[in-house]
Write a structure and sequence with these properties.
Number of strands: 12
CATH topology: Metallo-beta-lactamase, Chain A
Oligomer: single chain
Helix content: 25-40%
């Protein structure tokens, strides 16, 4: 009996230890995820500090700065260097946000939170996944973490506001890709005008399972439908996304020899992206997509 109990305790501890391991999925087939590019000013006080494809944004204010997304764990140094290159202090980063609780957007978040002492603010539905390092992600098997756990200091619901200095960001709950995927809508100014900016979390479908085969996320199909419809109704001047490839970042980056906010005002491409996502969703819903 004692031997059996000892074995049971050992297996339980071993399983718990296994779950503590952080195993960031390989990104070798996505070289743009790690390829650095020079940081630049998008519009007003909004800057790009990410890689060639994993989009990270810095919003500066007189009261401190907001950082949205961090890319992979290996991107920590690159992001911090980019912030410095733009002439801003790392210690002035006060708020951390993400568009989704996946390793390719949260990989370096724990490290950057530690360096900056900034507060992590997240959608309520993604907060548990952020806190456990991806362990409870509906599309994973729950055996290991995909990023280092991050303490969430404040949770948000749809249309809640993030205030810092002169900035007022509205968080939009856009679930599907993750349970708490979200977008951000806010205004920035330059010498010419005021711009309404949307950082859109486009609802690409990650799961290979049928929607009805995900008991841990029973409302997933409904959430995708809601998010696509909600994104189509938004009013904005400039739009960006979680991945540079979704809004032709490199093409615009190479074309922007100087400050050109107009490059990011291509609404036609925004609606084209949404139409393609809706088509993919419908195929998945009818079982035509494997």
């Amino acid at each position: 009996m004692r031997k059996a109990l000892f074995i049971l305790m050992f297996l339980t501890l071993a399983a718990a230890s296994y779950a503590q391991v952080v195993r960031e999925p390989t990104a070798t087939k996505y070289p743009e995820w790690t390829r650095p590019i020079e940081p630049f000013r998008i519009v007003g006080n909004l800057y790009y500090v990410g890689t060639a494809d994993l989009a990270c944004y810095l919003i500066t204010t007189k009261a401190g700065h907001i950082l949205i997304n961090t890319g992979l764990a290996s991107s920590e140094g690159n992001i911090l260097d980019n912030i410095k290159k733009l002439g801003f202090k790392i210690s002035d980063v006060k708020i951390l946000l993400t568009t989704q609780a996946h390793f390719d957007h949260l990989g370096a978040m724990a490290a950057i939170k530690k360096v900056t002492g900034a507060k992590m603010v997240a959608d309520y539905a993604d907060a548990p996944i952020i806190t456990d390092g991806g362990l409870s992600d509906y599309d994973l098997d729950g055996k290991y973490r995909t990023f280092k756990p991050i303490n969430v200091d404040r949770t948000l619901h749809n249309a809640d506001h993030i205030l810092l200095g002169e900035m007022n960001l509205t968080m939009l709950h856009h679930p599907g890709h993750t349970k708490g995927s979200c977008s951000y809508l806010f205004k920035v100014k330059d010498k010419s005008r005021t711009y309404r900016v949307l950082i859109a979390n486009l609802p690409t479908i990650t799961t290979e399972k049928g929607f009805n085969a995900i008991p841990s996320y029973p409302q997933i199909a409904k959430d995708y439908s809601y998010t696509i419809a909600a994104l189509k109704k938004l009013k904005f001047d400039i739009w960006l996304a979680s991945h540079g490839s979704q809004f032709d970042l490199l093409q615009k980056y190479n074309a922007a020899k100087s400050y050109r906010p107009s490059l990011f005002m291509d609404k036609k491409n925004y609606y084209k992206e949404l139409d393609e996502l809706e088509d993919d969703y419908q195929k998945k819903l009818t079982g035509k997509r494997s």
